[in-house]
Specification:
The structure holds two protein chains of two kinds. By secondary structure, chain A is mainly alpha-helical. Helices cover about 35% and strands about 5% of the residues of chain A. Chain A has a domain at about 1-45: Glu-tRNAGln amidotransferase C subunit, N-terminal domain (Histone, subunit A, Orthogonal Bundle). In chain A, β1 (about 85) and β2 (about 85-90) form a beta hairpin. The longest helix of chain A is centred in the N-terminal third of the chain and has 18 residues, at about 20-40. By secondary structure, chain B is of the alpha/beta class. In chain B, about 40% of the residues lie in helices and about 15% in strands. Chain B is built from 15 helices and eleven strands. In chain B, the strands form two sheets. In chain B, strands 4-6-5-10-11-9-7-8 form an eight-stranded mixed β-sheet, with helices on both faces. A three-stranded mixed β-sheet of chain B has the order 1-3-2, with helices on both faces. The chains are: A mainly alpha, B alpha/beta.
Amino acid sequence: MSIELADVENIAHLARLHLSDAEKQEAANSMTDILGLIDQMQSVNTDNVEPLAHAFDAVQRLRKDEVTESNHRDELQKIAPETDQGLFLVPKVIE
Amino acid sequence: MMIDSGLADISRALADGSISSVELTQDYLKRIAAENTDLNAYITVCDELALAQAKAADEKRSNGNAGVFTGIPIAHKDLFCTNGVRTSCGSRMLDNFIAPYDAFIVERFNEAGAVTLGKTNMDEFAMGSSNETSFYGPVKNPWDRTRVPGGSSGGSAAAVAGRLCAGATATDTGGSIRQPASFTGITGLKPTYGRVSRWGMVAFASSLDQAGTMTQTAEDAAMMLNVMAGTDVKDSTCSNAPVEDYTANLDKPLDGLRIGIPVEHFSDGLDSEVEKAIRAAIAEFEKLGAVVKEVNLDNSHLSVSAYYVIAPAEASANLSRYDGVRYGYRCDNPVDLEDMYKRTRSEGFGAEVKRRIMVGTYALSAGYYDAYYIKAQKIRRLIKNDFQKAFEEVDVIMGPTSPHTAFPIGSKNDDPVTMYLEDIYTIAVNLAGLPGLSIPAGLVNNLPVGLQIVGKDFAESQLLNVAHKFQQVTDWHTRQPG
């Protein structure tokens, strides 16, 4: 399976990464290589095998819907690039 | 010098008053100042914090309130959040990130009275097997400074091997504790998945990541695990399995221990000198009363393939939070939000991280999810089943941690797949969630060789016992570089 530049552009956009033309070509080459490694998985039949998402097939633990944490916004926002009145500031989203 | 000793000896020396924590800490800081510019094991050295903690520890001791770990200087891998101290994950993305809280294990060590010497270097976001992808430059192997220490926990490994700390925390997702331990001649423990809380441990691949220890000996690893293991409501993947005293069974005799040697780990690709050293090490266990038999891990050859779908896929999700909005790096003069996301991420992440995000995004994208991600999870089930079958006949599984000894810096940078194959013996253990240890078992051309020992779920006590008995009759773990 070979990765083309158009695939790279699509994936880069999904991942919100910006790649230069040289980087795009390098990405296509290395991803094609890596897919070669991954395609070895297709050599084994897994038709009746259950996927394993967690080593011990654990499920999400739940707890009572009670407030147990306190608000640390001011402390945690101290390290933000830009804030105003408790909001994180970002460039305008223009449509 | 006292700072050449391991945790257990240091704990005893502090207890009997032959040294103070402040003296110890000063000696480590002096050695770090002399060696770290070259070795590059530490990204951040916490001089003031360490001395303050050491002073507090000595005071606690003079008030009769000291515990086993009070006053012992350790290092933390730089992906554990340390309140008020930079937590960089070896990345430009978090170069300016001062963690606003302590990770669970950091809290535990602080409560136990440990002294934090600093934060150790690592492959960026834990992605690598050589500590060459760090934004802060490569770490050197104290055994041969032209060679890698292994990765991703190369800084922790070099710090312990270079005697720049008494022990260090680290993490292992595909081999990142065991392989560097093997390359630097120290003891590296990856506990069972869920044994140690991941709260405050920056996530790479959430179903695989596990915090562990790097020390000179198995006894030291047991001391650290006693501090780290336990349940935590803030990590819903953390196990409620009962916590033992991991030092209690270290001396149990090994008569009748059944050791499994996977045929697949002794085939092409394993360096013949490394194989000799490993087989000689296994023979020592037979002298201790163990019985050895061959086992099969039929789907071994697919572990790297499955891992390089699952880990990048989970990483692509975990690293999507790095967007320049709330903390960390933000690009200059973003034109709009999309530009901010794209340039922040492209400038903040290094090449290997971007590569894995791309592979992971691809594997999870529409049309490929079943063929790649679900297929990999099925392979994961087969790999777990292989271990379960083997453990019906044996108690522990042993083999080489790595196919060879430490390689030269820069020698594997041409092709990512060559680097990925470094973890060929370690990766399956993460996929199956099992505990694994690497202990020094020999030297080839004066470079360390590691023996990997894998156990059943939550069998850390047995693994440490097996390793400790070996360390009582051999001296590989006492060898030091130079």
